[in-house]
């Protein structure tokens, strides 16, 4: 008989786990997926492209309803898990029903962090995490709307770009001295700032938000320096918070995320966590590739195979049309590493590769990102680059031609 496996969360990590289980252990588990969002799992990464009007919302669904049905998986979407009893092995849902489990996986992702300032709950102060957020932003913004985006990370820039494409007049406010400081060095960030400004977006760096002002809804953003920016809509993109409260209430070890070991197991028997809600070796990843890698390892283990998760290399691509930015690994260069840099300001191209102990450990590409995948593969495989180091910066084609 199939063992009941309950997955809480119907996002990207859950979908990947189900895909792996369907491939390697179809029928071994009776799988039920519980998801708060009232729709099939979708590619959240593409929400920015949906907001920018580059991809229709209907195109981002990961798998049609028939895929789940044909594999005997039960989807309970539009239903939140509200409690877990690890002793009784049940998950309670928002409609009061209880699902029994033999194995349980938390794949609850994260939610957008709110700014702890006055006015943060005013109508018109929005976040950008799911389809509903993207739809609300798109409904609110139109030509002439004055929009302020708080947060100059990947998500904030993509939200600003999406808003600008609707014809809104957008100001991007960022606390730090450069955009995407967690992915880019100063030089690449300066190039990015110019490109973002060229899209008609005003960028304010080293600028802190004091509060949101408005009566019925937001009307302005007051900055700590005292200035006020008029705003019909504000999008706050200042980070995420793992959805770990239910796990904590169930007595599982939770720091920032749900603590898991190299088997993706929590400290409760037969209870696992993957994706953005999980904390592995002190790290909560905020990207889809680590979630996929975790899903793969967990699926292997649930199929009875040996597998271990050792952590992931962070790698990101910005999704702003015409602005090609890639960053991975140790992009700043820790002590003991060496940086190889190539720049052509005329072409708007910048490359920085970080080498440590004869291996590629980090990369920033601006302008031409065609070799991003190759550099990432070199980082992941940890292959020695000594034999083609002199050509490394010029990309795969040259390095491989010289090596042949
Ligand atoms: C606009 C945007 C752009 C992004 N761009 C990139 C990118 O370019 N590259 C990249 O690597 N990553 C990107 N990300 C991040 C990426 O989408 C996430 O890392 C990925 O979705 C994580 O997968 P997950 O399954 O852990 O979480 P999610 O995909 O968030 O799924 C979690 C699901 O669990 C549900 N849930 C939560 N609590 C409960 C509960 N109690 N009961 C039932 N269901 C629950 C949530 O509603 C959600 O549907 C982007 C994210 C956003 C929002």
Describe this structure in words.
By secondary structure, this protein is of the alpha/beta class. The chain has helices spanning 12-24, 47-51, 65-70, 131-140, 154-165, 186-198, 245-249, 288-302, 372-381, 389-392, 396-403; strands spanning 3-8, 29-35, 74-77, 81-85, 90-93, 98-100, 103-106, 110-112, 125-127, 146-150, 169-173, 202-204, 209-213, 220-223, 228-230, 233-236, 240-242, 258-260, 271-273, 278-280, 315-317, 325-329, 338-344, 349-356, 359-366. The strands form seven sheets. A five-stranded parallel beta sheet has the order 3-2-1-7-19, with no helix packed on it. Helix 1 (12-24) packs parallel to helix 8. It binds flavin-adenine dinucleotide. Flavin-adenine dinucleotide binds at residues 8-14, 34-37, 44-45, 47-48, 80-81, 107-109, 128-129, 155, 243, 246, 275-276, 286-289, 291, 316-317, 319.
List the helices and strands and how they pair.
Elements: E1 3-8, H1 12-24, E2 29-35, H2 47-51, H3 65-70, E3 74-77, E4 81-85, E5 90-93, E6 98-100, E7 103-106, E8 110-112, E9 125-127, H4 131-140, E10 146-150, H5 154-165, E11 169-173, H6 186-198, E12 202-204, E13 209-213, E14 220-223, E15 228-230, E16 233-236, E17 240-242, H7 245-249, E18 258-260, E19 271-273, E20 278-280, H8 288-302, E21 315-317, E22 325-329, E23 338-344, E24 349-356, E25 359-366, H9 372-381, H10 389-392, H11 396-403
Parallel strand pairs: 1-2, 1-7, 2-3, 7-19, 9-16, 10-11, 10-16, 11-12, 18-20
Antiparallel strand pairs: 4-5, 5-6, 8-17, 13-14, 14-15, 21-22, 22-25, 23-24, 24-25
Helix pairs in contact: 1-8
Bound molecules: flavin-adenine dinucleotide (FAD).
Flavin-adenine dinucleotide (FAD) binds at residues 8-14, 34-37, 44-45, 47-48, 80-81, 107-109, 128-129, 155, 243, 246, 275-276, 286-289, 291, 316-317, 319.
């Amino acid at each position: 008989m199939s063992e009941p496996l309950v997955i809480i969360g119907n996002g990207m990590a859950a979908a990947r786990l189900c895909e792996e289980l369907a491939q390697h252990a179809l029928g071994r588990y009776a799988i039920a997926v519980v998801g708060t969002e009232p729709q099939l799992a979708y590619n959240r990464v593409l929400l920015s492209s949906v907001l920018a009007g580059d991809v229709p919302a209907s195109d981002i669904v990961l798998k049609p309803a028939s895929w789940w049905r044909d594999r005997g998986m039960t989807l309970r979407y539009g239903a939140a898990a509200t409690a877990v009893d690890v002793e009784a092995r049940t998950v309670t849902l928002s409609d009061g029903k209880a699902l029994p489990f033999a194995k349980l996986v938390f794949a609850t992702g994260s939610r957008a962090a709110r700014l702890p300032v006055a006015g943060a709950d005013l109508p018109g102060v929005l976040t950008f995490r799911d389809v509903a957020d993207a739809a609300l932003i798109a409904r609110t913004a139109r030509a002439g709307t004055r929009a302020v985006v708080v947060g100059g990370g990947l998500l904030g820039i993509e939200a600003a770009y999406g808003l600008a494409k609707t014809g809104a007049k957008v100001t991007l406010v960022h606390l730090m001295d450069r955009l995407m400081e967690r992915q880019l060095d100063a030089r690449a960030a300066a190039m990015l700032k110019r490109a973002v400004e060229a899209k008609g977006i005003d960028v304010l760096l080293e600028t802190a938000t004091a509060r949101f002002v408005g009566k019925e809804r937001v009307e302005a953003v007051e900055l700590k320096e005292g200035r006020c920016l008029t705003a019909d809509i504000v999008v706050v993109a200042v980070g995420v918070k793992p959805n770990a409260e239910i796990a904590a209430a169930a007595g599982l070890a939770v720091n920032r995320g749900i603590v898991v070991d190299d088997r993706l197991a929590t400290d409760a028997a037969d209870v696992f966590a993957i994706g953005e809600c999980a904390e592995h070796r002190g790290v909560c990843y905020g990207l889809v590739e680590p979630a996929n890698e975790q899903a793969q390892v967990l699926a292997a283990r649930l199929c009875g195979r040996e597998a271990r998760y050792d952590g992931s290399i962070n790698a990101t691509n910005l999704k702003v049309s015409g602005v090609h930015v890639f960053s991975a690994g140790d992009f700043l260069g820790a002590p003991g590493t060496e940086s190889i840099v190539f720049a052509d300001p005329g072409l708007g191209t910048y490359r920085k590769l970080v080498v440590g102990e004869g291996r590629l450990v980090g990369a920033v590409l601006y302008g031409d990102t065609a070799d991003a995948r190759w550099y990432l593969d070199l980082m992941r495989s940890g292959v020695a680059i000594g034999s083609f180091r002199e050509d490394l910066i010029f990309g795969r084609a040259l390095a491989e031609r010289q090596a042949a």
